[in-house]
Task: structure prediction
Amino acid sequence: MAAKIISGNEVGEKIREELKEEINSLKGKGVTPGLATVLVGDDPASQVYVRNKGRACEKLGIYSEQHNLPRDTEETKLLELIAGLNEDPKIHGILVQLPLPKHIDESKVLYAIDPSKDVDGFHPTNVGLFFTEKNFEDMIGKQLFLPCTPHGCIELLQRSGVELSGKDAVILGRSNIVGKPVALLLMANNATVTICHSRTKDLDKICQKADVLVAAIGKPKFVKADMVKEGVVVIDVGINRTEEGLVGDVDFEAVKEKASMITPVPGGVGPMTITMLLANTVKSAKRTEKMMA
Ligand code: GUN
Result:
């Protein structure tokens, strides 16, 4: 039987509706959530991502400003811009689009962002805070900045009614942005987690055991139907530009015939990343409002 399609557009829309109410309530108390995005260089994909983030803010009534810097910008200039944004009371969230040009030290830049404005959840303080938390409910209850794409994956699963406790979750990819943090979030939801990467032996066998499979390796249509078991839930984080357009890391047409649920590309995880970024910006603005009260 063909899988149920998990729509990130629909789930994201629902969450954004919820956020709109919170934003209006904050505005009523004199606080307008504000997000600053920083893009260094002219990578076309990054330009699209950053523009989409700005548009999403506008739709919800979040103040946003976009800082476009030339590719040859010196690291010190970028650090100065971040220092200014750290001090700017209009700004509750700062996002520096990755990857950065090679001459800039990515860690140094991410560490320079004030952890209380780190809506990407990439600063070691925020990574540490959610690393040390055992349960997902506590992570949410304590209003931690969870990294956007991994958090978006969990929202998709939870809001689609997928029970994670005791399930075998297999993750393809060990990146800092997706693979590692999504493993922690799945574990915090009581799944048994295996992370696979380029050196993993018997990859097919491991994937075939997965109740939930998260693919985040950046290889078009890498996951084939014979690599998954009947009834698997598939979250495809890949966004690959190919001659046939955008495709995920999963061979969607073939795998959807075996899966019970699957996310499409585009329209799956992508819209959730932006939505969770907006959610973190609102979370940050709420903290400011509490400090003012
Ligand atoms: N590049 C790819 N994904 C992301 C993300 O989630 N945040 C930032 N800042 N850059 C990215």
Observations:
- Residues 32-117 form a domain with the Rossmann fold fold (CATH 3.40.50.10860).
- The chain is about 45% helix and 15% strand.
